[in-house]
Structures
1.
Amino acid sequence: MNALPKFSQQPDFPRQRSLLRSPGRRASVQPSNVRVSRQYRLVAFETCLRLGVNVGLSAIALSTLVYLVPYRTAQTQKLKEVQGEVQQTEARVAQIQAEFSRNFDSSQVKAILQEQTHMVDPSQRVVIFDDRLPADIGKPDKLAQTP
């Protein structure tokens, strides 16, 4: 009348344990642990290898930067010097071009001739400035009186 089946007092655990630990299972459990530890070792080796390669590449990059920074500084200094010389040369070229265009200007031929040869146009008068004071004009020079 009881609809529920009777359970025995002793559980079936030993029988289930024997199924879990069968001799075939034991042999497969041991190598799987070895495989897992081997996989971990391979992953650890690969990680260490990658880390080593990256550290090596970083060291090469840093040594290259240490070499290039002074070189760049020297090149920047040389560039500034060259730019200064270029500015001076450009100013000189502009001055020479202005002088060149003035020399070939037909309206300024007389002025250029007077500047370069110190000749005076006959229609112009020569003016000479004297630095002596009007009171000193009548007196003889002191330098001329010394024996």
2.
Amino acid sequence: MSSGSDRRRHPRLPVELHVEFRHLGRPQETYADIARNLSAGGVFIGTTVALELGTELTLEIAPGPGSRPIKVRAEVVRVEEEPVGTGSKVTARTRGMALRFVEVDAAELQRLVTLSNTLSTEPK
């Protein structure tokens, strides 16, 4: 069985970017968190929000002050949890969600790729 990194078509680069997302079925609910890594194919958001696999979202990734947000549609492909001790009980807490881009304008995709290469926290 292949690991997740073996199946990826696009390399993911570590970043820290403000991102807002909305569930397409409940657009009045807006969440804001931090993108932890980014590629031309998707993004991992550090969040305590856990949406169901397959849920479609609209994302607005903030490239920086004074720049217009990069807008894309994505779907939840993985929710990561971590165990948390609460007294005598261990429960799980959502650590983040992996999202796959499903609809991206070519110009927005180029902005994403340029942004991820520019802001990567990975040593050069």
